[in-house]
Amino acid sequence: MNSLLRPWTPDDAPVVLAAAGEPLMDRQFTFPVDSLPAAQEWIALAQARRNEDMAYSFAVLHEGVPVGNVAVSSVERRHLTGWVSYWMREEARGKGLATAACRALSEFAFTELGLFRLELAHRVDNPASCRVALGAGFLVEGVERGRLLYDGVRYDTETHARLAGDRG
Fold first, then answer.
1. Which candidate in 45, 57, 143, 168 could, as Cys together with 137 as Cys, close a disulfide (CB 3.0–4.6 Å)?
2. CA of 19: how far to CAs of 33, 55, 75, 90, 137, in Å?
3. Strands 56-62 and 153-163, how do they pair?
4. Which residues are within 8 A (CB) of 65 and not within 5 positions of it... i.e. 6 or more apart?
5. Which of 135, 118, 116 is nearest to 127 (CA)?
6. Spatial separation of the C-alpha atoms in residues 39 and 60, rounded to whole Å
């Protein structure tokens, strides 16, 4: 795709496993990634979802090494929408990589997939994620009260969206 993003490969399983082991990162995965086979399964699922036109996950590269993930999922062809998500390994945070990756992913979604609207949300107590969204051209649309439940605690989320015609 470009020097910043590429599809995940089976060789990336150790990176995925290491990322899943970082604090609070388990919430970024749809199932526990606690072993190399689980990391390989996560990558295989990403590849299968791409083949089914359901989701497109990319490794975010820094100096050629995967340090994060950016994805457009819930690809909906009737309304031409998708859901954006991202995570970065601890050592890669604060370098602008997530913002650049979200911009690149948005261009891919608009030009290659033909989507019109991309959405994302972050916990309101996560200002770093908000900076990524705003920096990537996603406008604030509102707060969803009590949207997420982690460890018995409810969290509000802020929803953002970017349209194909928006400046990014």
1. 168
2. 9, 20, 25, 8, 26
3. unpaired
4. 15
5. 135
6. 16
pLDDT along the chain (168 residues), means of 10: 90 97 90 96 97 97 96 96 97 96 98 98 95 97 96 96 89
Running DSSP on this structure, what letter comes out for residue 93? T
* Residue 82: burial class (beta carbons within 10 Å; 0-12, 13-18, 19+): buried
Token output for 63: 């100096």
Beta bridge partners of 6: 59
Q: Taking the CA of residue 37 as centre, how many other CA atoms within 13 Å lie in the half-sphere pointing to its CB?
A: 0
Query: Which long-range contacts (C-beta less than 8 Å, at least 24 apart) are formed by 74-81?
Result: 75/113, 75/115, 77/53, 79/116, 79/117, 80/114, 80/115, 80/116, 80/117, 81/115, 81/116, 81/117, 81/118, 81/119
